[in-house]
Amino acid sequence: MRHFLDLKDFSTEALQAMLDDGLRMKAAKKSGEVLELPLSGKTVAMIFEKPSTRTRISFEVGIKQLGGTPLALSSTDLQLGRGESVEDTARVLSRYVDAIIIRCYKHDTLLTLAKNATVPVINALTQRSHPCQLMADLMTMIEYHGTLTGQTVAWLGDGNNVAVSWIEAAVRFGFQLRIGGPKSYAPPTDLLTWARANGGDVILTNDVYIAIDKVQTVVTDVWVSMGTDEGSRRVDFKPYQVNAKLMNAAADDAIFMHCLPAWRGLEVTAEVIDGPQSAVFDEAENRLHAQKAVLAWCFADN
Ligand code: CP
Ligand code: NVA
User: Fold this and answer.
1) pLDDT of residue 75
2) Which of 101, 115, 175, 289 makes an SS bond possible with 26, Cβ 3.0 to 4.6 Å?
3) Smallest Cα–Cα separation from 25: which of 300, 287, 260?
4) Is-catalytic flag, 103?
């Protein structure tokens, strides 16, 4: 079954092929070329347990552009929201639709859905990871820097779901990832162990200047992810705010990325996110093109 659950499930070559396809589809769309319709006659269910602007809309538009029919479903409208099992939901939906996209709280919900579905399942964000975001982010890095291998990236702040997918990407594409944040918010230990065992160049530091020194890409995310308590996060993450002074310590041609939504004045200042080094809206646009490539892969014959 062609599930898209996490980047670490794929070889570098398979991921690179998807990125190439996304870049190709983006160029074709912009030049007005008629695109192939690999989802013709296919219906794709999209289940959202949490809010979404980019993921939901880019998938819905992308499915339509590839000839398919999207079905956006809130988990509260489904019996799933009243306690019907994930297993039964997977089995039933598989009888109606050709693929299932899910954004859910627990990563286990995604895995259980994938285990019991007989159609492809795509991870649209869990508490653990956000691989679709990374496909767009990698596309954006390629567009700005021409390559992934050998690059240097600083991730600043929370070791959250997006950070997890950045780690997996760093391992697969051979770039250095410096995670700058308080130790108590570090990404999961099992993943860091996996990254090191697989030759990843992933550095953890609580010194924001070690993290950002001369890097080519600076990335951050919200300090409080959906479903997370704020607690003392505003205080704990304050030293990691991406502001103009901090950006000065990165490479001269460094870009700034953020998966959005962003909170200006918290994890990033308006000066940076709305400034000349910001790539955030190209990054957001690339969700559409990267996910079309993921969808095409899910429906490709072996
Ligand atoms: N970056 C991202 O996944 O945005 P949404 O929550 O709006 O989908
Ligand atoms: N880390 C954020 C990403 C939102 C797209 C969250 O989970 O809320």
Assistant:
1) 85
2) 289
3) 287
4) yes
